[in-house]
Amino acid sequence: MKIDKNTINKIARLSRIKLDSKESEDYIKDLNSILDWVEQLNEINTDNVEPLTNISSSVLPKRDDISEDIHSSEEILKNAPEKIEGFFSVPKVVE
Amino acid sequence: MKSKSLKETIKSLEAKKISIKELNDEYIKNIKEKNNLNIFIHFDEQKIIDQVNKLEIDNSNKKLKGIPIAIKDLFCTKDMPTTAASKILENFNPTYESFVTQNLLDDGAVFVGKTNCDEFAMGSANNTSYFGNTINPLSNDDEPLAPGGSSGGSAAAVAADLCLGATGTDTGGSIRQPASFCGVVGIKPTYGLCSRWGITAFASSLDQAGVFTNNVEDASILLESISGFDSRDSTSANVNIPNYSKNLNSDISGKTVGIPNEYSIEGTPEEISQIWEDAIKYIESKGAKIKKISLPHTKYALPTYYIIAPAEASSNLARYDGVKYGFRADEINSLDEMYENTRGKGFGKEVKRRILIGTYVLSAGYYDAYYLKAQKVRKLIANDFNDAFKDCDFIVTPTAPSAAFPLSASQDDPIKMYLNDIFTVPASLAGLPGISIPFGKDKNNLPLGIQILGKHFDEQQVFNAAYCLEKSYE
């Protein structure tokens, strides 16, 4: 088994997702079966194969390094769950 | 009497046989009557009336002027909320318009509403939506069917006659499979043909916008509208967009059609094999040459996809943190607790499953074994298609391994659900254009679909072949 209770807790922590114990058990089962299934890729020899990272054959374009006025801070803050005086607001970080 | 053809409707509007208001009033009526199908996440009659009133006094020539279009709720729209069918974006009101929807607005389209889909486009049955399942309009009363997914609401909206066209997104089959399930036309163009700007990101190296319509010609008209270069998406292709609808030509004589051996999969229902054979025979009768081809890495496409797509999703969905927009959990004492509770409560089961898988395959010690390996196999899959297209002009396959299945057959086994995309995922990994058109029926009289795949940026050939095949039943 690749994923045990410790591993699922670690991945959940890295993902910043809180799981309850029932969810953890379900995901241990799901992830193990998915990882067993994708294991079949090891049947293929990929020793001299370049990874495909970008499907578009063209070179990624560069833009001129100039500032643009796209969104106002008011627009950016419009959907914030909490904001104070033009800033996003979050729980206290430093004691 | 209104037509189900977008092209015919444009003509009727131009000839003033029907007004924009009369046309859209009929669609508003249809949408209200079919409310039980749960096709729309957002529908506001007044917003449609407002758009219509503006267009009624607009004297400019716009090629989609007054045409009712439904928008998958993955596209950011300035005047309508955008949820990606997730609790975490339940109250999100974009302050900007996606590239695709802006193009449609510039062409005079009327947005009738935002359609239901799988949460963050992750699903094949529309059953992961926070807002409940869309019901396939072809269902009979005692057995509601799935519309397919993830763009199930958009496919259903066209099939139920609630619009004349709809937008969708396709990451591994999310346009083609629901098109097949709902008996409509759906095209996913070449990766990069339409800018991804303003589309809620799922797997950025695969995500591609496209359209649903009632026929091939309508699809060619709508695709012209939503395609084009955009500097705000670094993978947007700077290519000329042909006039697909004007160039549409059903003559495929002299063309070579590739039939991949590896798409004859054990366990495929007889009726799927049968329509595939019928389609090949019809195309041959129209003067095309049939050529057996091999795409040897086909069977590895699904496991490759289910490493790459979740990996990219885990990164893309990191932005939903309860700070900038969307849902924030209450009862929180620290910043980390805010992130963890917000994401734990805000995301649904399948989305969390994919974020966890993606995080695992990208994590230290596993990156090479899973993610890098999958990218290498992806290269081999893309090479298979490159080799095959040296010997053929387009490829014909079934779209999905079944007709629409009942909602009650909810698939708890994730791998079983992933198999729905078996015929659509390979072309997604290779970034190729693909269309699904209705072709034949199963024993329960439900539509089946044929998929036509083309070379990169050869949408015209894909449309032409589909146009030819469509004439077999029109």
What can be said about the biggest beta sheet of chain B? Answer: 11 strands, mixed
Proportion of beta-strand residues of chain A: under 5%
Q: Give the helix proportion of chain B (percent range).
A: 25-40%
So, the CATH homologous superfamily of chain B? Amidase signature (AS) domain
Radius of gyration of chain A, in Å, reads 22 Å
CA(first)-CA(last) distance of chain B: 20 Å
Regions with little confidence, pLDDT below 50 for 5+ residues of chain A = none
> How many helical elements of chain B?
15
Helix/strand structural class of chain B? alpha/beta
Looking at the chains present, what oligomeric state does this protein adopt? Answer: heterodimer
Distance between the ends of chain A: 41 Å
Provide the structure class of chain A.
mainly alpha
**Rounded to an integer, what's the Rg of chain B over CA atoms?**
21 Å
Numbering strands along the chain, what is their spatial order in the largest sheet of chain A? 1-2
What does this entry look like structurally?
The complex is a heterodimer of chains A (95) and B (474). Chain A has 95 residues and is mostly helical. Chain A has 3 helices and 2 strands, in the order αααββ. Chain A has helices at residues 5-14, 21-38, 73-77, and strands spanning 83-84, 87-88. In chain A, β1 and β2 form a beta hairpin. Chain B has helices spanning 6-14, 20-33, 45-56, 99-106, 152-159, 176-182, 216-226, 270-285, 301-316, 335-346, 349-362, 367-388, 414-418, 425-430, 459-470; strands at 40-42, 68-72, 110-115, 165-170, 185-188, 208-213, 256-260, 289-293, 394-398, 434-441, 447-454. Chain B has an 11-stranded mixed β-sheet with strand order 1-3-2-4-6-5-10-11-9-7-8, with helices on both faces. In chain B, α5 runs parallel beside α6. Chain B is globular, with a radius of gyration of 21 Å. At the A-B interface, α1 and α2 of A face α9, α10, α11 and α12 of B.
